[in-house]
Design brief:
Blueprint: H1 2-43, H2 49-91
Length: 106
């Protein structure tokens, strides 16, 4: 009877050791797979979500500022065009014939 207990004890120890080795092997495989996936993602040049959101917010802000500046430039150009209109009319007046150009100062 004691031989059966000894045999079962030996089998239990071998099985326990095998399960321990398998558990260690499993964790090693998981670590290797995780490292491989991280390396693959790094090679694909993926951006973390936080960085993407930050850059997107900066782009949206830049777009709004650009649109505001475009409106401001258009308003300034319109004001400049309005300011130049009276001057062009004054320049368009006919000049007097026989004015200072024919003085003969040569």
């Amino acid at each position: 009877m004691q031989t059966q207990n000894r045999l079962l004890d030996d089998l239990a120890r071998v099985a326990g050791g095998a399960f321990g080795a398998l558990a260690g092997l499993r964790s090693e495989i998981e670590d290797m797979v995780k490292q491989r996936l991280e390396r693959l993602l790094a090679d694909l040049d993926h951006v973390p979500r936080e960085e993407f959101d930050a850059v997107r917010a900066m782009a949206e802000k830049a777009r709004m500022e650009q649109e505001a500046l475009e409106k401001r430039v258009a308003a300034l150009e319109a004001a400049l065009a309005d300011a130049q209109k009276p001057h062009t009319r004054a320049k368009a007046k006919p000049s007097r014939k026989g004015s200072d150009a024919d003085d003969g100062d040569c």
